[in-house]
Design a protein that fits this description.
Elements: H1 4-26, H2 31-37, H3 48-70, H4 76-91, H5 144-151, H6 178-192, H7 200-205, H8 213-222, H9 224-231
Helix pairs in contact: 1-3, 6-9
Length: about 230
């Protein structure tokens, strides 16, 4: 039997799924139409793969919740609600990378692009004006040598362009340590999600199967320039 916490959590998940479906529809809009779709709070527009990942996680959480309800676990929903409360109270930070809640009743009317007026059959068209035939004046008679000299093209100066030296690509540092490769990938992903550099060591060290915190700090310090280039797509 569902508890009040189960019902609240199920309603919240359904609201999130409806919001994500609207966001996926909004990915087809251009920038002006997107910002007019809802009364958005300040945020960075989420990309499609972020929306699809969020929807996948919400569906997975709903599946786990229904399984726990069927098994008679009455504390699972309470634990999830407590986690959400603490995340908003203690762990959340002021960032712009989040998915705002989109609701269908709050959706604004989408402005239609301007339509180009079609040509009417009754529109008055101006008739083309024909130019009077101009009298053809014969070319002045001259010596055949002059005519040949006029037809002779002027010599074109040949310029040989010097080949520009091609810049040698800088060798990228390669790593053979799987743990180090994982730390670099985690750091690149977290920077793309808007995390600050000083937050990366503790966030990565808390993940499963990651090196300890001192080792993570050493890897990040030695590969800072490489991580920033990859995170910014350079």
């Amino acid at each position: 039997m569902e508890t009040p916490a189960d019902q609240r959590l199920l309603e919240l998940l359904e609201k999130w799924l409806a919001s994500l479906d609207l966001h996926l529809e909004y990915t087809a809009l251009d920038e002006p139409h997107y910002w007019q779709a809802q009364a958005w709070v300040e945020h960075q527009r989420p990309s499609r793969w972020i929306l699809e990942l969020a929807k996948q996680k919400v569906l997975a959480l709903r599946t786990q919740l229904t399984e726990r309800i069927a098994a008679g676990d009455e504390r699972f929903s309470d634990a999830i609600e407590l986690t959400i409360f603490l995340a908003n109270l203690v762990g959340s930070q002021h960032i712009e990378r989040f998915i705002p809640l989109a609701e269908k009743p709050a959706e604004r009317a989408q402005p239609q692009p301007p339509q180009t007026p079609s040509d009417s059959s009754t529109q008055t068209r101006e008739m083309p004006k024909y130019l009077a035939a101009q009298a053809h004046t014969p070319a002045p008679a001259g010596d055949s040598r002059v005519a040949r000299a006029e037809r002779k093209p002027a010599p074109v100066a040949k310029s040989r362009a010097k080949p520009q030296p091609q810049p040698q690509p800088q060798p990228q540092p390669t790593t053979t340590n799987p743990a180090q490769d994982q730390v670099l990938a985690d750091a690149e992903r977290l920077i793309q999600w808007g995390r600050k550099w000083y937050e990366l060591p503790e966030l990565i060290a808390r993940m499963a199967d990651r090196p300890p915190l001192p080792e993570v700090r050493r890897i990040l310090k030695e590969n800072k320039s490489l991580i920033e280039r990859k995170a910014h797509g350079e």
